[in-house]
C-alpha cells in the first residue's frame, strides 16, 4: 500500500468515525430530552419572556403574532424589538401591544448601531425590557407550534440547564404559496445541520444552535456577559452557546419534539440562500472560540478538500476515497435526521440527491468563506471577524 493510499484511507475512516460519534451524541441528546420533558408541568406565571427582534417584517410578523396568540398557555410576556424598521412593522407591533396591555411591550431602536452585529444589540435591548428569568428567542419570520412556549420551557425544570435549542425546518406553512425545490432543499438542509448541533450537545461540547428557536436562563446569559458582552461573531446564537459553555456552570440541551419545531420562511432565491450560508460558515470557521473553529473546521474543510480531489480521481482512483468518506458520513446523519425528526415523506424522497447537492454547495460556500466574501444581514454589511 502506497503512502498516499494509506493517508487517504485513514482520513476517510477517521471522518466516518467522527460522524459515528456525532450520531451517538445525537442519540444521547434524544435520551436526555425524553427525561427532561417526560413530566408535564404548567409554566410559572411571570417567569417566561418571549423576545422577538424584527426589522422590516410587515409581511411575516402578523403570522408570528397569530402563533403567539394561539399558544396553549398565556403565562408568558412578549417583548417585540423594532430595530429601525421603515415599513409597517412598528404599527403592527403597537396594535398587538394595545390588544394585550401589560403583557406585550414594544422596544423601539432608532439609532444606527455601532460596528458589530446589529441583531445582537436588538436582543440585548429586548433582554433589558424583559422581566422573566427564562428568555425564549425567535424571529419575526417564524411559524410556531401551539405548544412551543411550554415545550421549550420544560427542560429548565432541571436547575443546571442554561440553554435549550430546538430544530428549525424552513417551509411555506402559513404562507400564500406552494413549496418548490428550493424550499424542500432548505428544509432538508436545516434538519441535516441540526444533527451536528444536537450531536455536539450530546457529546458535552455544544458549539452551535439556532437563534430563532432558542431558550436561555437569564442567570446563564448574565454569566456569559449578556448579549452586549458576547465576543464579536456574525452568528451571535452560536457565540452565546460557546460563552455559556465556557462558564462551566450550565448544561446545554437540544430538543427535537414536534412542539419545539419552528418553521421559518425559506429564502426565496439562490442568491439570498447563498448569502445566508456564507454568514453561517463565516461564523463557524472564524468563531472567536477554538472549540467551535475546530469542530466545524475539521468537518467542513475535509469535505471541501475531498470534493476538490474528486475530479482528479480519473488519474488516481485513490483520490475518490475522501469523497466516499464524506458521502458515507453525511448519509449517516441524513438517515438519522429522517429517522428521528420524521419531517415527512418528502424528506426520504429527496435525501440522496439533497445529500449530493449539499456536498457541492457546502464546499462552494466554504471556498467563498475562505476568500472572505463580504457578509450582510438585512441589507447591512457585517464587519469581518
Low-confidence stretches: none
Kindly state the mean pLDDT as a whole number? 91
What is the CA-atom radius of gyration, in angstroms? Answer: 21 Å
Order of helices and strands: HEHEHEHEEHEHEHHEEHHHHEE
State the secondary-structure class.
alpha/beta
What is the number of independent domains?
2
- The spatial strand order of the largest sheet comes to 3-2-1-4-7-6-8
Helix content: 40-55%
Overall geometry comes to: globular
CATH topology of the largest domain: Spore Coat Polysaccharide Biosynthesis Protein SpsA, Chain A
Assign the CATH class of the largest domain: Alpha Beta
SS element count, helices: 12
Number of strands: 11
Beta content? 5-15%
Largest sheet geometry: 7 strands, mixed
Give a quick summary of the entry.
With 385 residues, the protein is α/β, with parallel strands linked by helices. The chain has helices at 3-36, 61-69, 89-99, 118-129, 148-153, 181-202, 218-223, 236-247, 270-285, 290-309, 321-341, 345-370; strands spanning 48-54, 77-83, 104-109, 134-137, 142-143, 161-165, 214-217, 251-254, 263-264, 375-377, 380-382.
Question: Could you please describe the fold and organization of this structure?
Answer:
By secondary structure, this protein is α/β, with parallel strands linked by helices. The chain has 2 domains: 3-24 and 289-373; 31-268, Spore Coat Polysaccharide Biosynthesis Protein SpsA, Chain A (Alpha-Beta Complex). Helices cover 51% and strands 12% of the residues. The protein has helices at residues 3-36, 61-69, 89-99, 118-129, 148-153, 181-202, 218-223, 236-247, 270-285, 290-309, 321-341, 345-370, and strands spanning 48-54, 77-83, 104-109, 134-137, 142-143, 161-165, 214-217, 251-254, 263-264, 375-377, 380-382. α3 (89-99) links the parallel β2 (77-83) and β3. α6 (181-202) crosses α11 (321-341). The longest helix is centred in the first third of the chain and has 34 residues, at 3-36. The model has no long low-confidence stretch (mean pLDDT 91).
